[in-house]
Amino acid sequence: MYRSERRSLFRFLAIYLLSTLILFTIGSAIFYTLEKHHLLDRQREAMKHEGEKIQHQLIRLHKSFEAKLPIRVKEPYKIALLDKDHTIIFSNFTPPKNIDLRQEYHLVDRHILYIKPVDPYYLGTAYLLLWTPVDGTAISHLQNMILLFMLGAGAFFLLLGYFLGRLFIAPMRESIETMNRFIQDTTHELNTPVSTILTNLELIQTLHKCDAKEEMQRIEIASKTLSRIYDDLTYLKLNHQYHRDIKTVDLSRLLQERLEYFSTAIEAKKLTLTIDIKPGVVLHIDHDDAIRLLDNLISNAIKYNQNEGRLDVLLDEKNFSIKDSGIGIDQAELTTIHKRFKRANSSEGGFGIGLDIVYQVVKAYSFNITIDSQKNRGTEVTVRWEK
C-alpha cells in the first residue's frame, strides 16, 4: 500500500472510528444509567416489601403484648427502630446522621437506606429504617456486559471501517497504479535514447575535435538531466520495494565525482563553487542511495541558484551541507516542501520529486535533515548522520 493510500485510509478510519466510539459511548452511558436505576429500583421494591413484613411483625408483637426484640430480618438487611423523638429503640447498624426521615430512600456510601413511617406507634416505633449495600454484583455484571458489547462492536466496526476505507481509496489506488504504469512505460522508453546520447557524446568529445563547445555543453546538460530524471522516476516506481545493498561508501570520493558530473551545469550558470571536503569520510549506505541523496541536493542548489551565484559544499565526518545563493523558500512552505510533487517555484523545471527522494533516503537510514532558507537570499540544506 502506498503512503498516500495509508494516509487516506488512516484518516478515514480515525474519523469513522472516533465518531462511532463517541456515539456508542453516549449510547452505552445512557443504557448503563437507565439499567443501574432499574437495578436500584428493584432493590428498593425488595426493601419496601421487607419493610412491610417487619411492620407485620411489629403489629403481632404489639397485639400480643410481647416486646421481644430483635425482630427477625432477612440478610443482607440491617434494621433500626426509632421513636417519634428520633431516638433509637433498637438497631444492629449505625444510622447515618442528619438524615431527612421524610424522604423514603437515600443513597449513602454505596448503601441504600429505606425509611418507613410506622403509624400507629407499634411498640413505640415511629420510624423503621432498613439498610443494605447496593447490589455490586449486578452492577458489575452490567458493566462487564457493556464492556464486552463495546469491544465486540468496536472490533466489528473496525473491520467494517477497514473494508469501507479500502473501497473509499480504491479509485485513488487505481489512479496511482495507472500513473505508475505510465512512469514505467516512460522510463523504459527514455532509457535507450538517453544512454545512446550520453555514450555518443562522450565518444565525440574524446575522439573528435568539435568547435561547437557551447552547443555540446548544452547537449550534455540536457542528456544528464534526462538521465537523472530517469533514475528518479525508476526509484519512485519501485517505491518501498527497492532493495538496498548496504556497504561502506567513500563519501568524499563520491561527492567529488558527483560535483564533476554536474560541472557542466555549474559552468553554464557561472557559479562560484566553494568546496570543503574532508578526505576519507565513509558511510554505511547503499551506493545508489548515496548518489540519489547527493545528486538531488546538488541539482536543486544549481537549478534554483542565480546566475553567477555562489555554491558552497561542505563534508565532514558528521554531516554534508550544501548552500546556494538562489531564490530561497518561503517560511510557510518549509514544512511541506519535501512532499512529493510539491514545488516552491513553478518558474523552474522539475517534477517536485527531488526532495521527496532525499527525505525517503534520510528516513531509511535515520539521518537528520534541516533546511534553512530565506526568500531571495538562498538555501542551506544539511544532512547529519552523527548526533
Q: Can you characterise this structure?
A:
Keywords: Kinase, Membrane, Phosphoprotein, Transferase, Transmembrane, Transmembrane helix, Two-component regulatory system. Its main location: membrane. One of its GO terms (cellular component) is plasma membrane. The protein has 387 residues and is α+β, with helices and mostly antiparallel strands. It has two domains: 3-138, no CATH class; 244-384, Heat Shock Protein 90. 53% of the residues lie in helices and 18% in strands. The chain has seven helices and twelve strands. It has a five-stranded antiparallel β-sheet, covered by helices on one side. The chain has a five-stranded mixed β-sheet with strand order 7-9-10-12-11, covered by helices on one side. Strands 6-8 form a two-stranded antiparallel ribbon. 19% of the residues are buried.
